[in-house]
């Protein structure tokens, strides 16, 4: 059984100094509008640069891509398009809105 010792009584309403007095530069203007759009596109894509993905649908286009193609994400643009280096030897961007893909285990 634990015994609790009471110390001198203090009011719970004691005002403590603020932990953070003012905004520091790192909390305010370090992300510009372009950086915010790029961050949002990366989050929306659900993958990171360097991740391997497998293409699950090609959005009905008759191009170089085929369902089942695998590749490595090389970059993510502000518009959300992924530039992927495909294992078949070419690089091509895909749009996450029109193409379905899944992240492959490392």
Report on this structure.
The chain has 106 residues and is α+β, with helices and mostly antiparallel strands. It has a domain at 48-106: SH3 type barrels (Roll). Helices cover 12% and strands 25% of the residues. It is built from 1 helix and 5 strands. It has one helix spanning 33-45, and strands spanning 52-57, 70-76, 82-86, 90-94, 100-103. Strands 4-3-2-1-5 form a 5-stranded antiparallel beta sheet. Strand 2 (70-76) and strand 3 form a beta hairpin. The longest helix is centred in the middle third of the chain and has 13 residues, at 33-45. The two termini are 49 Å apart.
Summary?
The protein has 106 residues and is an alpha+beta fold. It has one helix spanning 33-45; strands at 52-57, 70-76, 82-86, 90-94, 100-103. It has a 5-stranded antiparallel sheet.
Using brief descriptors, characterize the structure shown.
SH3 type barrels; alpha+beta; 5 strands
Low-confidence stretches: none
* Class per helix and strand makeup: alpha+beta
Which series of helices and strands comes N to C? HEEEEE
Strand order of the largest sheet: 4-3-2-1-5
Q: Helicity range of the residues?
A: 10-25%
Strand percent estimate: 25-35%
Biggest sheet, open or closed, and with what strands and sense? 5 strands, antiparallel
Please tell me the overall pLDDT. 80
Per CATH, the superfamily of one domain is Ferrous iron transport protein A (FeoA)
Rounded to the nearest angstrom, the distance between the terminal CA atoms is 49 Å
Morphology: elongated
Would you count the extended β strands for me? 5
Number of helices: 1
Radius of gyration computed on alpha carbons: 25 Å
CATH topology of one domain: SH3 type barrels
Which CATH top level class of one domain fits? Mainly Beta
Tell me the CATH architecture of one domain: Roll
